């Protein structure tokens, strides 16, 4: 019978059979997905699908305390869920040479210090942004989510600078830059809408913030510098209202909303480790221009009574955490309340040495710490001396800025000890810097540049060997 069919009818039958077989295969795939509880694949025009597959979306972040990084990661997961290929990079990792193949490039960047980029992005800003327009970016489609805080004069400065550079380089924005003020809800909604425009259909449910606020209570305070010519410095103790303290690691921060305030949280470096069973802060009293005590420091250092409640949350601070073991020497530099962030690292080092069962290495930790007067400003003096005796601290250099005849800051001690500093760096030391951004951190940066040279300093920074918590 088949032999009697004309060749045209035979071809037609074969084609219909093929179409039916393809339809059956598609139906089976659809059923399999439905039975597995997966959403059925949305029909996509073949050309669009090929474009999406062939051209990934790039997401590049610059983050000091992890919020921009968390938002970038969240956006990447959301796009990947929709089948979009995503490439994620930190802004200081190589990306400029490859990015021309991107469909869109999204930047999530924060601003730190006084309108500066996050620490790991400083070299990028110095080399790339400062060099002017970049030909590799011409014709690129990009979007910027800038994180910042309007209470700083240079609101979202790094995000703005980056946006301008991208425009000058001939890239075009696929949505207007979003400037988020302390992750305000409206900006996050606009970010969500921008991602929808790129194909994200499911809402970004969980805000990528660290643990939410919980109730704590004030336990006690102790003045660390009675008689000082400077403002009082207090060590404070807080405990969760219920249960044990949550986990945190050396270098982390808290956000604290003082009772009766404007609802704006203030950040402080945590001065100890959770194994203590409570949380400690080292806080300097600040006075506003009208002579009134600062809201948060006033409450902590003057007003709070034992058992008063306060709402706080613990915040990761990747720019000031460490991953290294006891074999890596630490150089810790700070002044005043900056002792808080350094102390948590010294506690961690002391514990790590005790756990190793070995004596402290020859170069364990070197603390260079500055205060005002030797007589009155010796915060945590006996603890530091005990660490020196047990060799957790291999070196302790204290400088005092109000004592005659030698009035010195930490940067002066650093320059004086330039030779030893070079040796420690050559031995692989990791640097930790905590305290005021303007006075202390700038001076230290300049001294390090003098000792190591521009290139040496940039190399250290690029290797992630300079961690800072400066304010
Ligand atoms: C010490 C310090 C300095 C800051 N300086 C600025 C600033 O100059 N301009 C600004 O808009 N935001 C500033 N911020 C706010 C941060 O940009 C904002 O908290 C952001 O959400 C942090 O994102 P990240 O965790 O990704 O670094 C500063 C925050 C801190 C803790």
From TrEMBL:
It comes from Uliginosibacterium aquaticum. The keyword Ribosomal protein does not apply. Keywords: Electron transport, Flavoprotein, FMN, Transport. It holds the Pfam family NAD_binding_1. Residues 57-196 form the Flavodoxin-like domain. This is NADPH--hemoprotein reductase. Residues 211-323 form the FAD-binding FR-type domain. The lineage of its organism: Bacteria, Pseudomonadati, Pseudomonadota, Betaproteobacteria, Rhodocyclales. Its EC number is 1.6.2.4. Gene3D superfamilies: 3.40.50.360, Nucleotide-binding domain of ferredoxin-NADP reductase (FNR) module, Translation factors. The keyword Flavoprotein applies.
């Amino acid at each position: 019978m088949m032999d009697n069919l004309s060749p045209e009818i035979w071809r037609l039958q074969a084609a219909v059979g093929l179409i039916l077989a393809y339809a059956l295969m598609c139906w089976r795939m659809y059923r399999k997905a439905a039975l597995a509880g997966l959403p059925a694949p949305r029909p996509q025009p073949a050309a669009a699908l090929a474009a999406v597959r062939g051209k990934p979306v790039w997401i590049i972040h610059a983050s000091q305390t992890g919020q921009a990084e968390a938002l970038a990661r969240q956006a990447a997961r959301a796009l990947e869920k929709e089948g979009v290929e995503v490439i994620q990079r930190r802004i200081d990792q190589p990306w400029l040479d490859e990015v021309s193949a991107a469909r869109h490039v999204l930047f999530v960047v924060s601003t730190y210090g006084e309108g500066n980029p996050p620490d790991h992005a400083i070299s990028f800003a110095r080399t790339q942004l400062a060099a002017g327009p970049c030909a590799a970016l011409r014709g690129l489609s990009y979007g910027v989510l800038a994180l910042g805080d309007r209470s700083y004069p240079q609101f979202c400065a790094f995000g703005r600078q980056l946006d301008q550079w991208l425009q000058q380089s001939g890239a075009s924005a696929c949505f207007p830059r979003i400037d988020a003020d302390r992750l305000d809800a409206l900006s996050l909604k606009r970010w969500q809408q921008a991602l929808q425009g790129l194909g994200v259909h499911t809402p970004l449910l969980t805000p990528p913030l660290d643990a939410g606020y919980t109730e704590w209570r004030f336990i006690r305070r102790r003045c660390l510098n009675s008689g000082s010519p400077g403002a009082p410095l207090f060590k404070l103790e807080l405990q969760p209202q219920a249960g044990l303290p949550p986990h945190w690691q050396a270098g982390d921060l808290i956000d604290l909303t003082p009772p009766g305030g404007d609802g704006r949280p203030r950040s402080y470096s945590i001065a100890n480790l959770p194994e203590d069973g409570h949380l400690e802060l080292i806080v300097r009293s600040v006075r506003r221009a009208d002579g009134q005590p600062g809201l948060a420091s006033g409450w902590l250092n003057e007003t709070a009574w034992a058992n008063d409640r306060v709402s706080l949350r613990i915040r990761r601070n990747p720019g000031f955490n460490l991953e290294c073991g006891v074999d890596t020497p630490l150089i810790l530099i700070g002044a005043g309340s900056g002792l808080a962030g350094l102390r948590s690292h010294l506690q961690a080092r002391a514990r790590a040495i005790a756990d190793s069962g070995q004596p402290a290495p020859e170069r364990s930790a070197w603390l260079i710490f500055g205060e005002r007067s030797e007589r009155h400003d010796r915060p945590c003096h006996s603890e530091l001396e005990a660490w020196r005796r047990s060799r957790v601290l291999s070196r302790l250099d204290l400088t005092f800025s109000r004592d005659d005849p030698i009035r010195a800051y930490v940067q002066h001690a650093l320059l004086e000890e330039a030779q030893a500093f070079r040796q420690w760096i050559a031995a692989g030391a990791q640097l930790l810097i905590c305290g005021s951004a303007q006075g202390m951190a700038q001076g230290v940066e300049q001294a390090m540049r003098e000792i190591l040279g521009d290139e040496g300093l940039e190399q250290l920074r690029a290797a992630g060997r300079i961690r800072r918590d400066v304010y």
